[in-house]
Each structure stands twice: as structure tokens, then as C-alpha cells.
Design a protein that fits this description.
Elements (H helix, E strand, L loop, with lengths): L1 H12 L7 H4 L5 H21 E7 L4 H14 L2 E3 L15 E6 L2 H6 L6 E6 L2 E7 H13 L2
Antiparallel strand pairs: 1-5, 2-3, 3-4, 4-5
Length: 145
């Protein structure tokens, strides 16, 4: 919504469009609530499709698979967050680790929604985060066997 408002403001300041809302949109002021309704619907369904939780089968003992995880995360530009930072209350499990993009440019491109949560499970790792990144990391972990 903010980006849309900025674009409209820039267009008005540049005199590309009229400053009157009823002339900018076909339905005039009724368009504002229609746009807000569409944005609310998108905001409601985006987390369902934008974020996933997937398992990567990486057999082996902790001391064997930890270097594999570190190597894959570093190769894809992630660094581990310090232990205890940004953890929800009550979550102290040492098997849960969080990674962030190392590059500020990458973080900015993802609007600071770049965290990948990695949890050790019996068969390997369970990763949670943005769909495209999690799929890429799970495939990379699987191919390291």
C-alpha cells in the first residue's frame, strides 16, 4: 500500500495524472476501498504461499552433518545469527538455529524477510523460511550426501 501511495504521489507531483482521485481511478473514490480490499486479501494469503517448512534428508551423526549445513549456508550467502537472538519466548532448544543473508543488498531485496530457521531432526534438517530460498537450500543439502 505504501509503495502504491508513493507511486501515485510521484505521478501527481510530476503532473502525469490529475490530483483528483475521481479522475485518477475509473470508479473514483470507490476504487480506494476496492484497492484496500484486494491488498488485504493478498496480505492474508501471501504467508500461506510465500513461506514453507521442508525437510532435507541428510543422514549421519551431528558431527558429520554440521559441516555440510555450514558449507551449504555459507555458499548461499547465509551467516548464523548469534545464539539467543530473535528467539520467541520459551524457545531455548539448541537444535534450532537461525540464519540471515550476509549481504545487506540481499537483505534489502528481501525487505529483511531473509531469515531461515534450521532445526535438527532425526533424518536431517527441517528448514523454514521464504519458499524459493528454502527449496534451493533443501536441494543443496540433499545433493551433498
Amino acid at each position: 500500500m505504501v509503495i502504491l501511495a508513493l507511486i501515485i504521489a510521484i505521478l501527481i507531483v510530476a503532473k502525469v495524472v490529475d490530483a483528483d482521485i475521481s479522475k485518477i481511478f475509473v470508479n473514483g473514490y470507490d476504487s480506494l476501498w476496492q484497492i484496500a480490499l484486494m491488498m488485504a486479501a493478498f496480505a492474508a494469503i501471501y504467508p500461506r504461499f510465500g513461506y514453507v517448512r521442508r525437510q532435507a534428508l541428510v543422514p549421519g551423526a551431528d558431527e558429520e552433518v554440521e559441516p555440510v549445513l555450514r558449507r551449504v549456508m555459507e555458499f548461499h550467502g547465509y551467516v548464523e545469527e548469534p545464539a539467543g537472538s530473535s528467539r520467541p519466548l520459551g524457545m531455548t532448544d539448541a537444535s534450532v538455529r537461525r540464519f540471515r543473508k550476509k549481504s545487506v543488498a540481499d537483505r534489502l531485496m528481501r525487505i529483511w524477510e531473509d531469515r531461515i530457521t534450521v532445526e535438527r531432526c532425526a533424518t536431517g534438517f527441517e528448514l523454514e523460511g521464504i519458499s524459493r530460498d528454502v527449496v534451493r537450500l533443501v536441494n543443496a543439502l540433499r545433493s551433498q550426501e
